[in-house]
Write a structure and sequence with these properties.
The protein has about 250 residues and is an alpha/beta fold. It has one domain: Carbamate kinase, CATH 3.40.1160. It is about 35% helix and about 20% strand. It is built from eight helices and ten strands. A ten-stranded mixed beta sheet has the order 4-3-5-2-1-6-8-9-7-10, with helices on both faces. Helix 1 crosses helix 3, helix 2 packs antiparallel against helix 3 and helix 5 runs parallel beside helix 7. The longest helix has 24 residues. It is globular, with a radius of gyration of 17 Å.
């Protein structure tokens, strides 16, 4: 067991498909997926009930592909949902190789690969100490996996929604192009929507705001970062209901 004591009991972790690519330009990096699996196992050992929503952008991105081809948006989105199932099954294999029971639940039924999404069954898996990976988004086109993550977090009654990214949190401008960019410590959902912060889409932000589901955006690539977040350490940016916006260096 980790020496850190968690302040949350049940969390939902959102991972983008791109996070699984590592330095590759496409597909899944074995090194990265093994790292993610190790972080998940370490977090679980803290006594955390952990569910995951994984994207599919490393394999297929519906919006951009629909724009580049003759495919309609709905068809492209369905193809993107299938990509998330591939990532979920790969992540399941990596986690189970480390000895932790895992279940994939898909919003599109495919019995040979995954269970159908059933809310009560998902909660029961979590209560039994299993990791649950939600695949195929919401099962509907025109909704992103960010929205799926917000929806599933509320359905399973998670204490917090975590968004793992490649940067340290939410900045007031792009830190790659602007070395003076400032990191937010806390930002309200209304400010995130007003300032068009793009770390999650506006539908996911509004859904979380209207249902009082706070989220933390953090750098998933740093070892131990998930454990630090669930232990309540100041990591990344917390986005929550009305709260005075703070920058990290102001605190």
């Amino acid at each position: 067991m980790s020496s850190q004591k968690p302040i949350y009991k049940r969390v939902l972790l959102k991972l983008s498909g791109e996070a699984l690519m590592g330095e590759e330009s496409f597909g899944i990096s074995p090194k990265i997926i093994d790292f993610v699996a190790s972080e998940v196992v370490a977090t679980h050992k803290m006594g955390i009930e952990l569910a995951i929503v994984v994207g599919g952008g490393n394999i297929f991105r519906g919006v951009s592909q629909a724009a580049k081809s003759d495919s309609d948006r709905a068809t492209a989105d369905y193809m993107g949902m299938l990509a998330t199932v591939m990532n979920a099954v790969a992540l399941q294999g990596a986690i189970e190789a480390k000895g932790l029971q895992t279940r994939v639940q898909s919003a599109i039924e495919m019995h040979q690969l995954a269970e159908p999404y059933i809310r009560r069954r998902a909660i029961r898996h979590l209560e039994k100490g299993r990791i649950v990976i939600f695949a195929a988004g919401t099962g509907n086109p025109f909704f992103t996996t960010d929205t799926a993550a917000a929806l599933r977090a509320m359905e399973i009654e998670a204490d917090i929604l975590l968004k793992g990214t490649k940067v340290d949190g939410v900045y007031d401008s792009d830190p790659v192009t602007n070395p003076e960019a400032r990191l937010y410590e806390v930002v309200s959902f209304n400010d995130a929507l007003k300032n068009d912060i793009e770390v999650m889409d506006s539908t996911a932000f509004a859904l979380c705001r209207d249902n009082d589901m706070s989220m933390i955006v953090f750098n998933m690539n740093k070892p131990g970062s998930i454990q630090d977040v669930v232990a309540g350490k100041q990591v990344g940016t917390k986005i929550q209901a009305e709260h005075p916006t703070k920058f990290a260096k102001d605190c």
